[in-house]
TrEMBL record:
One of its GO terms (molecular function) is dephospho-CoA kinase activity. It comes from Alsobacter soli. The lineage of its organism: Bacteria, Pseudomonadati, Pseudomonadota, Alphaproteobacteria, Hyphomicrobiales. The gene is coaE. SUPFAM superfamilies: P-loop containing nucleoside triphosphate hydrolases. This is Dephospho-CoA kinase. Keywords: ATP-binding, Coenzyme A biosynthesis, Cytoplasm, Kinase, Nucleotide-binding, Transferase.
């Protein structure tokens, strides 16, 4: 039986790099963000264009334009989520079916808003990636087009890092360097693989 590990963390915490360590170790990883990108180029584009006319160009959703439409508009964001979330869940279901079919002992669901959307209920355990707030801010503001105002708006829609860490089975602190984070991931893989019954009751922290 495949053990399902949720991987999450707030913006700028190093989740993508951490997911890469799982892939390096041969663990199948479902990337929810990548799934959304595919939907924006495929079956989701006409549905989003119908709800937000003018955001699709040459069959592809303009993410920046769409972001401007929904970032400060809760009703618009809800309309977008009602379109995207069911399609993403279908892709996730296909991924888990494939992992089970391949007899993978462990599969990772890389989902940015895992706790915010109740996704942890679909997982056997959760790993949260974290870093000090100053490191997080430095990373995010270094991104092209990012502003302090936009960063604050994104954070306002995410569960506080402290709450995520409190609800996690494991926490990997990515501010300590790639090798330290990789060691943390390998420790989680060892704990999860082959021992799902015990892991569900564990409360460990790789950052302590």
């Amino acid at each position: 039986m495949t053990f399902i590990l949720g991987l999450t963390g707030s913006i700028g915490m190093g989740k993508s790099a951490t997911a890469g360590f799982f892939r390096e170790a041969g663990v199948p990883v479902y990337d929810a963000d990548a799934s959304v990108h595919e939907l924006y180029r495929g079956e989701g584009a006409p549905l989003i264009e119908a709800a937000f006319p003018g955001v699709v160009h040459e069959g592809v959703v303009d993410r920046q334009e769409l972001g401007r439409r929904v970032l400060d508009d809760r009703a618009a964001l809800k309309r977008l989520e009602d379109i995207v979330h069911p399609l993403v869940r279908q892709a996730e279901t296909r991924f888990l079916k494939d992992a089970a079919g391949a007899s993978a002992p462990l599969a990772v669901l890389d989902i940015p808003l895992l706790f915010e959307t109740g996704g942890e209920r679909r997982c056997d355990a959760v790993l949260v990636v974290s870093a000090p707030a100053a490191v997080q801010k430095q990373r995010v503001l270094a991104r092209p087009g990012m502003t302090e105002e936009r960063f604050a708006a994104i954070l306002a829609k995410q569960m506080p890092d402290s709450d995520k860490r409190a609800r996690a089975h494991w926490v990997v602190d990515t501010s300590r360097g790639f090798e330290e984070a990789r060691r943390g991931v390998l420790g989680v893989i060892r704990a999860c693989s082959g021992r799902p019954g015990r892991v569900a009751a564990m409360r460990l922290s790789q950052s302590s």
